[in-house]
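Internal QA ticket QA-208
Title: Verify multi-chain structure generation after dependency bump
Assignee: T.L.

Test input:
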Amino acid sequence: MTGVAGAVIDLAAVAVLVVGIAGLWRRDLRALVGLLRIQGVALALVAAATAATQHDVGLGVTAVLVVAVKAGVVPTLLGRVARSDPGARESAPLINVPSSLVLAAALVGLAVIVGAPLHALEPGRAAALAPLGLATVLAGYLLLVTRRRALSQVVGLLVIDNGVALMTFLLTAGVPLIVELGGSLDVLLVVVVLRALLGTMRSRLGNVALDELRELHD
Amino acid sequence: MALTVLLAPLVVALLLLVVRPGRRAEVLSVVSSLVVLGGGIALAIATVHGRVVHELGGVIRVDALSAVMVIVIGTVASLATSAMGRTLPVASDAATRRRAREYGVLVQVFVAAMLGAVLVANLGVVWVMVEATTIATTFLVGHERSRRAIEASWKYAVLCSVGIALAFLGLVLLYFASAHAGAGPRAATLDWTGLRALAPHLDPKVTRLAVGLIVLGFGTKVGLAPLQSWLPDAHSQAPAPVSALMSGVLLTVALYAILRVRTIADAALGVGFLRTLLVVLGLASLVVAAVMVIVQRDLKRLLAYSSIEHMGLVALATAAGTPLAIAAALLHVMGHGLVKSVLFLGAGEVHHAESTTTIANIRSLLRRRAALGGVLAAGLVALAGLPPFSLFASEIAMFRAEVGAGLGWAAGLALALLVVVSAGLLRAGRQMLLGPGEPAADPAPHRAIAPLVGALVVCAALGLVAWPLATLLHAAAGVLS
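Actual output:
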């Protein structure tokens, strides 16, 4: 893995994480969906460049799939929800933006420590980048647990999923195609289901933040 | 045969898209479940002596363990689908018809996804199928469209998807480790038989991380504490047949994935790592269940916490891991599937008749609704682990196996917590069942009660005579050792 393709992989992998962390910074819901689209493109670039260096047709197919689903259909579906509620912002995250950025930095450190055995097992360049994927997963979790808007939670879920996908491309040049196809279909369907549920929530309950839904308890 | 089992619910799902909701659609759903049950028995006969059935170019791989799971899915699905008509309003206008249709189709898709999870050879595809169950059931949990049902289904979909994402990350790491197991990158695999063969050569550090993530991920779906917070909400808000399917069998389908991964983990890491993890999760689940069952005020939530308890017990037996422990755990999975379905369907009948599931508002059922009250009484006795039902036998066998595996202290703690949970269940039962009253004018019809009685009789029979199941359960446990 040398030359242009290697540089593309490096840059795009870093971009996936940077965009994930930027999600913690932006509170505008439409901007959040835009970031998701950029992340999808960066992810597809990693897959495509890896496919090119390894002459892996299956991974090439996966790259096309990633662009279509993660940079195309999914952000478009979510963008429609965000636009139907103009000026929608994350009202008040449970942790304010500066603190969550500091936390994110700590999580990146954690990812580097946890990812060390991966690099030890495969001393190549791609495995060295794997902590970027782990850090993206952790940033997604942080987004998910600190945001109260339903749409932000969906974005958090998808950032986690993108982080896991980045790990697959970097470590194993993708999982078997049947798993990849099934997994992409699942992600697409989850988003469709959650979007429909959002629609039901709006029509039945109005524009609520999730923590106003507190009827179920013991 | 395996393919027929998998296709039956999918074909019926397609048919239900065109058949008008009503009696005929209900019959179709039940037929699909019975085909699954019959297919499960046929697969069990084919695999009980150690044969493995491969179909669809090796994508489908059935051994005795898969066959046991198919039988449990078929049994619970038969019970659940036979009660579906009772929980739906009469399809009078286009909107209720559309929702009744959606309900019928999604239940079949849900059953198909569970079958897929236990019939495929590739752990990645198992993951895809388990996530597919989440997708199919999200709308089923929210079927009532009430504020609470919507809250429960949102929580369910988000928490389970997030949890299961961890498991996928774990599988990726396992795949990565298999590419570096000495047989070259081409040998990289997610087929669990292939992973089992490579296991002694897997890098321990990466495998430990992978197995931890996989167990936490699927553990979320099993409802093991501390990852259980979605479960009581989802199981209490879903319509009764869906609760029966979720509590009775979906939890154990997720556990099935952990059972498969355990053989790989033990071969790669020794028994210590996963055993410690499962003992911690199992005991934590029992503690949460014990505390919540005592303070519980709602019948369906009570049953949901009891499911967490039983999954904790099965997790402990899995931690012990001896063939005896696994066979006992599988018997427990069967017994729990039967009894929990009966009780959730019974709770649905209570809701139907009394318009409430608040324990304090339900009184003297044995006098007022003798048949329903009797079913609930027997079900609660079975769930509390009392004889003659099979849960008694399987709990004793699990505890004995745990003592034999050096987990006597955990078994002792579990037994103490079990007594607390059982006392809570029986106290709730006394509150709802006993007391003076006059027979109600509108008892539940025989066709609603008969399947429940049948299931309880089967559960009692399993507790008294192990034949013909013992051979199958030991064969299934043998697959894992």
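Spot checks passed. Chain A has a mean pLDDT of 86.
Status: verified.
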